[in-house]
Model the fold of this input.
Amino acid sequence: MAIHHTKVLIIGSGAAGCTAAIYASRASLAPIMVHGMQPGGQLTITTDVENFPGFEHAVKGPWLMEQMEKQAAHVGTQIIHDTIAKVDLSKRPFIAVGESGDTYIGETLIIATGASARWLGIPSEKQFSGFGVSACATCDGFFFKGRDVVVIGGGNSAVEEALYLSNIANRVTVIHRRDSLRAEKIGQERLFKNPKVSVIWDSVIEEFIGTENPTSLTAVRLKNLKTGGLTEYKTDGAFIAIGHTPNTELFKGVVTLDSEGYIVTTPGRTTTNIPGVFAAGDVQDKIFRQAVTAAGTGCMAALEAEKFLMGH
Done:
């Protein structure tokens, strides 16, 4: 069981973690980046990425994250395959213990553990994930230009995704388990006024249906919760919009979180309530949740960590 010491400890290896690692490495801070449960973050479950600057054609999410990680390693980041199980942020240097039993000691800490999209948890969902089933309209909506899509959910996320998709898709159908939406009234008004959007009430997805070779979604099987009746509804794409869960379990009661569990940072910065602890990416951003914004805050966190170390 090894002890690792670093000036900058980065937990998480998505776009935020990798960018923080690149900037910290180039500042000669020899950072350590600990992979976490989902090495590469949410981009590794995205197929085509068309909105990350620098690529003429769509690139694969897993490939993009592999490149970011290789870049971080190339400039001097030590990358360790481990998942942090507990942290002690009561004093500096900060201490984190991995599931491997290794101890990580960081003079500063950058939390880049991201957020996880909530899924329905039905078996066929995994089968068609990336092949018609998505949890991000801004990431994947473009691929459904002029086609029919469904959005599953009834909160602000679902309404926002449906309105966004109405500018791209031919028709958008919102499927909600209740007989009224939970979203803010202004969003609901815009949704109901939109001629391209309709709602199927009191219904849940029982199954995603499609072809196997090539893998492609063609329909969803719906169950009406009031009648118990099953129907098949044709669609080219399905967007799960039942919210995200920030990966902040480790930091509860230690770092200040908001009511939804996201880390609270100083507006326009990545500083948290603990001096020397910074947060970047989707773990503190519930609004944009894009790879490019996560990378931006990763850069900010590394620069702020460097400045903090210079002053201490």
